[in-house]
Amino acid sequence: MKYKLSLLAIILWSIFAPTTALALTAADSGNLHLTISPLPVSLSGKPGQKIVAKLSVKNSGTKTENLKVDLMKFSAYGEEGKPLLSERSSGDNYFDWVSFSQNRFLAEPDVWHDITMTITLPKEAALGYYYAVTFSRLNPPASTQTNKLQGGTAILVLVDALAPTAKKEIKIDEFTSSHRIYEFLPTSFNIKLRNSGNIHLASSGNIFIKRGSKVIGTLEVNQEAGNILPGSKRIFNAQWADGFPVYVPKTENGATVLKDGKTVNKLQWDISKLGRLRFGYYTANLVMTYDDGKHDIPIEAVVGFWVVPWRLIAAVLVPLSGVAFLIYKYIRLKARMKKLQSKEPK
Fold first, then answer.
1. Is the pLDDT of residue 139 over 90?
2. Which helix (H) or strand (E) holds 55?
3. 28 plus 59 within the same structural domain
4. Are 50 and 157 found together in one domain?
5. Which residues contact 256 (CB under 8 A, 6 or more apart)?
6. Mean pLDDT along residues 295-303
7. N or C: which end of the chain has fewer CB within 10 A?
8. Which H or E run contains 82?
9. pLDDT at 24 over 80
10. According to the model, what pLDDT value does residue 40 have?
11. What digits encode the pLDDT tens for the residues 213-269?
12. 306 and 180 in contact (C-beta within 8 Å)?
């Protein structure tokens, strides 16, 4: 049986944006508060070897909890490569390779507990195996017993059983800007990467904003080196907001203002950035790399866009046009008067 994201959505997304520790409050689980580390765990080993990882969990609540450790698997689904949890099915013998130093334990408030995970790779192991180590109450409330994911959290463990048949390859499926023409910054870029190999892999790099041949801005893409599962896609986003003026989210009482579920933006006029008025044609040059096991492989793409602050242009041109018209009329009038004077009898 499969469960799409559920309460683990934020935790599972850590495969794409890893961090050191994360706290999760399960509101429907009787206020179970767990903090786990690390996120995620990436391991590798040769077939026939044992791999050991230390997993840590802390009860961030106020009372002692009786917790259990379980094992699930995860994969990716959808065009964005979103993680999908599922239970063991027939043929998933790689579950038998895993053992834990503890399967149940009492978690006192504000105390870290270390669980040792041991994976014994058989000689026939090859390529990638993707585990989700879950922590949840041993005896959950009745309302949560129908879904073992509710009221718990998980650490993702990615295992690379090193094999000569490994194919490591990432391709850029799309590199686009959200618009071809912008009035003001920020510009938004979407990068869709596809893992066309057979093992999980990460790619990181930069977007270089150019005006002609001059680089005027640099954006980071996946600097946390989040992984992409084989056969799946991952979309990254980046914004270039170094301009004058620039749209920023509107806030009221410290909260972002929304309308119809979308963020309401306002123009920010920071006079200190007056010299960064953007106008004209720009290119965004994407340069990323991944390790194919031998050396770094670059992947590149380019997209162009315009920035045309038409309201500012109009605010300047309209008065200038008026002044130019008045000057023109004055010159015409002077010429006519001079002509009339030349025709007067002397």
1. no
2. strand 50-59
3. yes
4. yes
5. 249, 250, 263, 264
6. 97
7. C
8. strand 82-86
9. no
10. 86
11. 999 999 999 998 889 999 899 999 999 999 999 999 999 988 999 989 889 999 999
12. yes
In order, the DSSP letters of 218-258 are EEEE-TT--EE-TT-EEEEEEEE--SBSEEEE-EETTEE-E
DSSP 186: P
Length of the chain: 346
End residue of a domain, out of 127, 142, 161: 161
Q: How far apart, in whole angstroms, are the C-alpha atoms of residue 294 and residue 191?
A: 25
Q: How far apart are CA 266 and CA 257, in angstroms?
A: 10
From CA 199, how far away is CA 158, in angstroms rounded? Answer: 10
Indicate the residue among 101, 132, 161 that finishes a domain.
161
The pLDDT assigned to 142 comes to 64
Helices (runs of H) and strands (runs of E) counted in the chain: 2, 28
Instruction: Output Rg (C-alpha) for the chain, integer angstroms.
Output: 30
State both tokens at 187: 């510009």
Q: Give 44-79 pLDDT, tens digit per residue.
A: 999 999 999 999 999 999 999 999 999 999 888 877
Q: What is the pLDDT of residue 261?
A: 86
In a domain, 263, yes or no: no
**Enclosing H/E stretch for 209:** strand 204-211
Q: Is 126 in contact with 47 (CB distance < 8 Å)?
A: yes
First to last CA, the chain: 110
Domain co-membership, 77 together with 208: no
Q: Give the range of the structural domain holding residue 37, as residue numbers without chain letter.
A: 2-161
